[in-house]
Amino acid sequence: MSEPSPAPKLPVSLVANPRLSSWVRFSGEGRVTISPGKVEIGQGIVTALAQIAADELDVDITRIEMIRASTATSPNEGVTSGSLSIQQSGRALRHACAEVRQRILAAASERLGVDPSLLEVDDGTILGTGNVRTSYWELAGEVSLDHDATTGARAKSIAKRAVAGHSTQRVDIPDKVFARPRFIHDHARLGLLHGRMLRPEISGAKLISLDETAAHAVPGFIAIVRDGGFAGVVADSEAAAEVALKALRKGATWSAAEPLPDEDDLAGFLKSQPVETTVIDTRTAASTKKAARTVRRQYTRPYIAHASIAPSCAIAQWDGGRVHVWTHSQGVYLLRADLAIVLKLPAENIVVEHMEGAGCYGHNAADDVALDAVLLAKAGGGRPVRVQWSRHDEMSHAPFGAAMAIEIEADLDADNEIVGWRHAIWSNGHAARPGRATQPALLAASEIANPYPRMISTNPPAANGGGGDRNSVPLYDLPAWTITSHRLLTMPVRTSALRTLGAQGNVFAIESVLDEIAALRGEDPIEFRLRHLRDDRAKDVIRATARRAAWKPERRSGVGHGVAFARYKNTGAYCAAIAEIEGADDIRVRRLTLAVDVGEAINPDGVINQIEGGAIQATSWVLKERVRFDRTRITSTSWTEYPILTFSDVPAVDVEIIQRPEIEPVGAGEAAHGPVTAAIANAVYDCLGVRVRDLPITRDRIIAAMELAS
Amino acid sequence: MPVIEFQLNGAAMAVDADPDQSLLDVLRGRLGITGAHFGCGAGECGACHVMVDGRAMASCDMPMWSVADKDVVTTEGLGTVEQPHPLQRAFISEQAMQCGYCVSGILISAAALLKRNPSPTEAEVRAALDRNLCRCGSHNRMVRAVLRAASEMATS
Questions:
Q1: Is A309 close to B130, i.e. CB distance below 8 A?
Q2: For chains A and B, what is the number of CB pairs under 8 angstroms?
Q3: What is each CA distance from A41 to A55, A305, A322, B114, in whole angstroms?
Q4: Beta carbons of A310 and B37 less than 8 Å apart
Q5: Among A148, A176, A204, where does a domain finish?
Q6: What span, in angstroms and rounded, lies between the C-alpha atoms of A423 and A260?
Q7: Which of A143, A258, A385, A688 makes a 20 to 30 Å CA pair with B100?
Q8: At B24, phi and psi to the nearest 5?
Q9: Is residue A641 within 8 Å of A688, Cβ to Cβ?
Q10: In this structure, is residue A297 part of a structural domain?
């Protein structure tokens, strides 16, 4: 295998943060400190990054200490999202570690009098010919890493990587099974106070007046913080804060609700709002085959809750005009930028430090609660204040994944071959993360006395994978298409980034229509897809899945099989899924078979874990999940009202990785959702003969589809 | 406030507590035992499960008065790094989590299951964990881990 040539340009995260010492340091006692800007959200990123560093530096992974991201010390890598951490942080670390190794070997060569090419590194010990040796730690004092990265360093060849590319046990798991505090929720700080937020149960209601008397009388009460419509209570224990909040709620009067849409006519609502329309992509046919007919289909996806198992939590502590914030936000610098706007403080006065929370799957209330804690901590007298949201608020005030209506029109010729394709999306924007606009995106910022307007969600640009339009451009070689996105300019239900943004909805729509056209043609849906793909990696994952699931199993009554495929963002991981379902009154997904190609899989078991998890979460979305509301309030505020898949409902999941060590790695966290969604819907058709085009696929929806078909 | 006596992870405990306060509050707020996690406060998610007289129960809505003279075990009481419970070993071997927030409650439900049924079927494991929610989709790994622990305990 040939040696890789020097990188022609630096990885993006290194361009933004070129100083080598901000990524890698040698500490005493044979330790290596690695400081990425990306954060652990349960996806195993910290382990994968440690693997990359261990490999490039030739040290045992147990010597590596991974530092949690903090604005005080860490490189600024924006937000941990979009399945980009391996691409961004992984590439930067691989390069930075290669350069650090090269610099140290140059110094070792001088000290030992041995040509650098003859030096070897074994677990941090540098060995030359004739049994001469030194180590990273002996040389650490001599070799300054306060240099900017250059393009000259060469990472190891694939053949020489011993850690990356092999399954490695995650570094955070032992703490979690032995209940050693690791989550922000379990973080003990001296003098910790506890805060709770008073928020309306009615959508969009504003706090008009507040009788504070009863709350003041609660033992352990410390303070009420009120700033316009923002109100919360601080007490010396969680229990006292809860009691005081109850008292406070009794004394609150609220304005009327801002009306919510009709939850049973989401498409009607989405299509009747003012929108900003963007043509995402067009392709004009080379030949002008005539359309004999047009298949028109509409698909909808409901609002979906992030529904983390832990309610959002943050700790803040003021010291004069400076504040320290502990948060499970996905972007410490972005959160700091919004806090600086609201607090009217220079960013340097704010330190935002990451601590692990429960899986968030996108932009939940992690950032909102951080501002809540900062505001309540003003009444803490210099003591740290920990704020935790209630389950109710987590399920009603945090942003949701946006509802979508998608229309596809496929023009078919006389042989039912596709000659034209139009795909139109109506949806709120899929991103309203903090730190990206001149106005803050944090909930409390819209509640304080001089409120900022509530940010209407937007869509990331196509270069970043788009938002509502993510995965709307077919990867298939269709002769002509027009893809249009209509982004709503109103936002009665708060939306922001949920895992995959619009990709789940768009892949569901595209893969459902294709399945329908294949059936119309009497063509095997896998053959049909392969015939329309030009990308060999795409074809390989589909073929691998088909092989693994023994496609197509013999027809049995009451059992159905469906297939679907997507390449996440059209630039990320390739994933194909085959679903086996049992259908009678209810749908039960029995087995999901998937194949995935992420290029080089740094931690193969970690990739499998992400794909399995994505597949199971997608199954939950498809079969169960839908944010419920009436015209004045979100009503799905508990696990009873917002059920998710349980252990007995979970299908068997079988994953094959196509390892391509020669191809730069991409993330795996969002690859499975779209394909699994469509594969289940297509299996429902195979089993029951009806197409359900509105998610979730429930008994009522199946009955409605059957009535429509008959 | 009355003194409520109970066993916690094998040690005698006497806590001066409001009888209506929840066990979870006392564990986390008073005793600094953070293995049991708050998830919903309504006994619907299992993140706060502890073993009470050998049964897995939600501690978030369990009043202290009902704990008097009972034997309470939290994740901290299952095992240690030096002497891990077979379930703790198995969860590491199977890498049975993503974020891990639900895991301590699941370990407790699984430990209670293995106490009453040392060799459960897969379906019995799933049924025993149905009161525990996992949002990351690590269910199948956890089920494999419980079955692995059961077979390890049977042969040891």
A1: no
A2: 165
A3: 23, 17, 27, 30
A4: yes
A5: A176
A6: 27
A7: A385
A8: -60, -45
A9: no
A10: no
Pick the residue of B136, B138, B144, B147 with the most A CBs within 10 A to test the interface with A by mutation: B136
Contacts of B142 in chain A (CB under 8 A): 647
Residues A197 and A337 in one domain: yes
One CATH from 3.40.50.720, 3.10.20.30, 3.60.140.10, 3.90.330.10 for B3-77: 3.10.20.30
Report the chain A residue with the minimal C-alpha distance to residue B81: A178
8 A C-beta contact, residue A47 and residue A606:
yes
Q: What is the pLDDT of residues A172-190, one digit of tens each?
A: 999 999 999 999 999 999 9
Q: CATH 3.10.20.30: which residues of chain B?
A: 3-77
Q: Using CB atoms, which residue from B21, B45, B140 is nearest to A612?
A: B140
Do A129 and A206 lie in one domain? The reply is no
HSE value, Cβ hemisphere, 13 Å, CA-based, for A645: 27
Q: In angstroms, rounded to a whole number, what is the distance separating the alpha carbons of residues A263 and A274?
A: 18
- Residue A537 clears pLDDT 70, i.e. is over it: yes
Of the candidates A621, A502, A620, the residue with the CA atom closest to the CA atom of residue A566: A502
Find all residues with CB under 8 Å of A170, minimum gap 6, and list them. A44, A46, A47, A606, B95
Q: What mean pLDDT comes out for the span B102-111?
A: 98
Domain B86-155, CATH 1.10.150.120 — does that match? yes
CA dist A339 and A331 (Å) reads 12
| ipTM value greater than 0.90 | yes
| DSSP string for A177-207 | HTT-S-BGGG---TT-EEEEE---SSTT--E
pLDDT of residue A83: 83
A590 and A687 co-located in one domain: yes
Quote the pTM value. Answer: 0.96
Q: Give A43's contacts in chain B (Cβ within 8 Å).
A: 98
**Using CA atoms, how far apart are residues A240 and A210, in angstroms rounded to an integer?**
19
Work out the average pLDDT over B88-94: 98
Question: Rg (Cα) of chain A, in Å, rounded?
Answer: 27
One domain for residues A217 and A147: no
- Rounded to whole angstroms, how far apart are CA atoms B20 and B26? 11
Q: B86 vs A244, A387, B107, B148, B152, CA distance in Å?
A: 43, 35, 10, 8, 7
What per-residue confidence (pLDDT) applies to A1?
Answer: 38
Q: Specify the domain boundaries for CATH 1.10.150.120 within chain B.
A: 86-155
Is A173 within 8 Å of B91 when comparing Cβ atoms? yes
CATH code, domain with A25: 3.30.365.10
Question: Which residue bears the tokens 């070689």?
Answer: A477
Determine contact: B104 vs chain A, CB below 8 A. Answer: yes
- Exposed, middle or buried by CB within 10 Å (0-12, 13-18, 19+), for A116? middle
CB A644 to CB B133 under 8 A? yes
H or E stretch covering A120? strand A120-122
**A160 and A90 in one domain?**
yes
Question: What is the Cα–Cα distance from A705 to B33, expressed in whole angstroms?
Answer: 51
Instruction: For helices B86-93 and B139-155, give the axis angle rounded to 10 degrees.
Output: 130
Inform me whether the pLDDT recorded for B147 exceeds 50: yes
Give residue A567's domain range.
404-430+466-709
SS3 A527: helix
* Total domains in the fold of chain A: 3
Inform me whether the pLDDT recorded for A286 exceeds 80: no
B76: Cα within 13 Å, side-chain hemisphere? 17
Q: Which of A32, A23, A4, A396 is nearest to A202 (CA)?
A: A396
The single-letter code of the amino acid at A442 is L
Examine the fold and report which residue of A176, A195, A226 is the final residue of a domain before the chain moves on.
Answer: A176
Per-residue pLDDT band for A355 (boundaries 50, 70, 90) equals very high
**Mean of pLDDT values over A234-241:** 97
